[in-house]
Give the backbone structure.
Amino acid sequence: MTQKIKKGTIIAGFPGVGKSYLEKHYKNAIELESSYFYWINPMIEELWGVEEAKGHPDRIKKEDWLQDYMNAIEQERHRCDYLCIVMFEEVLDELIKRQIPFVLVFPKLALKDEYVQRYLKRGNKADWIKSMEDIFETCILNILYGYGWDAKSYFLDSGTYLADILDEEEK
């Protein structure tokens, strides 16, 4: 039996594992969508939708996004059962500096084609999907072995989503 993610956990999830689904379908889960912190012009996300805006050329990165994102993590982490966050290197480094525990959730390496289909289904732009396709294996391997983080890792099988590995009886 696969070990489940316990309540009260910060979940750093790879794109497409089901962070947004979790927030929409679980009564006490929050996803801190990084787009609202990372970019100066959030109207693009409002007009296009978050997934459709990924890779949009008119977005401008905020210089202080990391501090804003970390403040939001600190603020929300005790207000929910599951806090889903982006799996950016600088965010995870900052969590370690602040001694905030987290788990990593990502697909098995062989599932790149399945995840490309997930990105298409949710409406991501072709350029963003291509970039994810190009870095899929490298990104997962760097997270696992390249950065030296000591965090529990959960690997999703084909057809499995984040919601499938929660220690949760009731949605």
